[in-house]
Write a sequence for this structure.
């Protein structure tokens, strides 16, 4: 059995910045209202012609350059998203094509905000068994083209942004730079508290005028329930990893949480007694980019020097499904 490690991280966000003041011009909201409830000040939204595959390709190129690997070295591509570029095929093959990769397997997964952690876990298992030497794990999302940009949809619309993050995962050669453990969970009991129901193959037809009039093709969220689950599941996932690795809270150098809501992350830190300086957040600038938040946030933490080689890092997420989990690693 081999061990795996993160070799390189990349990210890409659109150049188009959408501030809270921009949204206030489109719907009944204010900068202060959004910041108070979410912590978000601005987000990036794609312009016409920009795709999820394009953003993912740019993020992968940076990750591969930092990892010191080329297209011929990649054995596996895992693409996490809830917003594929087209209904089918999965977006992973378009990134494969853009990068000029060999005829390697491309796996598209849909675990929403926990998608990047699921992708890391899959890559970790492939590398541990020797089935792959280098894997690309991608989280890429375009929310903006599917949001209700009117007052009726403001509670959801103000939260989401577009962006992509990617990591190259490869074999570890020592215990100083290694993925220590991964912990994944799901519970579909209340899956409908955060979902987009239409269009859907279970409906005949998949989309109807009635559904559109009821705005069922836009994301629906029961915010209070989601918040309650998040502040319960995320601390649990952190504790699970600490127990598995025989760690104390003081052993963790940095927590990189999914960027859904700054208030959620602040409460999670408070609940487990984590000092603010040991949790990095950047939702203020990018909003919730779902599967892309963790690689984007980790990328920024590394660039800022908050995460250094050998540091013990905890990645933790909660998302629709409901799904949640954590990954513990030494960077």
């Amino acid at each position: 059995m081999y061990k795996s490690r993160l070799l390189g991280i990349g990210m890409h966000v659109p150049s188009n910045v959408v501030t809270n003041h921009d949204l206030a011009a489109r719907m009944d909201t204010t900068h202060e209202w959004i910041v108070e409830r979410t912590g978000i000040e601005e987000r990036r939204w794609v312009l016409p012609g920009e795709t999820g595959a394009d953003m993912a390709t740019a993020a992968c190129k940076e990750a591969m350059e930092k990892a010191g690997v080329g297209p011929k070295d990649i054995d596996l591509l895992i693409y996490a998203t809830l917003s594929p570029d087209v209904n089918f095929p999965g977006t992973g093959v378009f990134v494969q094509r853009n990068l000029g990769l060999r005829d390697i397997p491309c796996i598209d997964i849909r675990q929403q905000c926990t998608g990047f952690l699921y992708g890391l876990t899959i890559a970790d298992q492939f590398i541990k068994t020797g089935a792959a030497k280098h894997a690309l794990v991608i989280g890429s999302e375009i929310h903006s083209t599917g949001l209700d940009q009117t007052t009726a949809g403001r509670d959801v619309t103000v939260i989401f942004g577009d962006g992509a993050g990617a990591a190259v995962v490869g074999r570890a050669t020592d215990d100083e730079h290694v993925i220590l453990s991964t912990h994944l969970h799901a519970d579909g009991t209340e899956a409908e508290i955060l979902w987009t129901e239409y269009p859907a193959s279970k409906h005949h037809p998949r989309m109807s005028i009635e559904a559109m009039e009821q705005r069922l093709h836009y994301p629906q969220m029961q915010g209070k329930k989601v918040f309650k689950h998040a502040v319960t599941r995320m601390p649990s996932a952190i504790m699970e990893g600490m127990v598995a690795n025989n760690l104390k809270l003081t052993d963790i150098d940095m927590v990189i949480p999914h960027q859904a809501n700054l208030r959620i992350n602040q409460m999670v830190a408070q609940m487990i007694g984590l000092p603010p300086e040991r949790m990095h957040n950047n939702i203020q600038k990018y909003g919730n980019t779902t599967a892309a938040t963790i690689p984007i946030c980790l990328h920024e933490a590394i660039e800022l020097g908050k995460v250094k080689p050998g540091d013990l890092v905890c990645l933790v997420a909660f998302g629709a499904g409901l799904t949640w989990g954590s990954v513990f690693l030494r960077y």
